[in-house]
């Protein structure tokens, strides 16, 4: 039986040059924040 993998990526610019990325996969979410230099 094949398991369905779904990956959802949300990218938000929270301020000038600052981004917040939310990665969701199978009801497990991780939030990453990074700054563009």
Give structural notes.
Helix content is 0%, strand content 68%. By secondary structure, the chain is mostly beta strands. A 3-stranded antiparallel β-sheet has the order 1-2-3, with no helix packed on it. Strand 1 (7-15) and strand 2 form a beta hairpin. The chain is rod-shaped, with a radius of gyration of 13 Å. It starts with 6 loop residues before the first strand and ends with a strand.
The rough form would be described as: rod-shaped
| Estimated radius of gyration | 13 Å
The portion of residues assigned to helices is under 10%
SSE arrangement, N to C:
EEE
**Please, how many helices?**
0
Mean pLDDT: 89
Number of strands: 3
**Low-pLDDT segments:** none
Question: Ends: how far apart?
Answer: 45 Å
Judged by helices, strands and strand pairing, the structural class is mainly beta
Question: Which key features would you list for this structure?
Answer:
mainly beta, single chain, three-stranded antiparallel sheet, 37 residues, 3 strands, rod-shaped
SSE topology:
Elements: E1 7-15, E2 18-25, E3 28-35
Antiparallel strand pairs: 1-2, 2-3
Outline of this structure?
By secondary structure, the protein is mostly beta strands. The chain contains no helices and 3 strands. It starts with 6 loop residues before the first strand and ends with a strand.
């Amino acid at each position: 039986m094949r398991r369905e993998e779904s990956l959802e990526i949300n990218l938000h610019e929270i301020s000038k040059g600052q981004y917040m990325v939310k990665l969701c996969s199978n009801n497990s979410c991780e939030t990453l924040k990074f700054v563009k230099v």
